[in-house]
Amino acid sequence: MNPKRILVVGGGPAGLVSLRNLTDRGQFERVELVERDDVGGSGLVGNVLPEFLSFSHFPFPEPLSTPHQPFPTLVETYDYLRAFADPYLKSGHIRLNTEITSVDELANGAGWKVSFNDWNAGGKARQETWDAIVVAVGWHDNLVWPETEGLEELKARNLAIHAKWWRGAKGYEGKRALVIGNANSSNDIAAQLAPVAQDPVYRNIRRPSFPRFPNLPDERIKDVAPVVKYALGQDDKVIATLKDGTIIFDIDIVFIGTGYAPYPKFVHLLNENKELQSLMTPPPTPHRIPSLHRYILNAHNPRLAFVCSALSYTAFTIGDLQSTWLALAWRGEIAYPQTAAERLVFERDRLEAIAEWVAALDNPSSLFVYGVLGAYEEEYAIGLKEDVVRARPELGDVLPEWSEARTKHREAMYAVRFKSLEWTRDHNEVER
Question: Residue 397: phi, psi to the nearest 5?
Answer without folding.
Answer: -95, -5
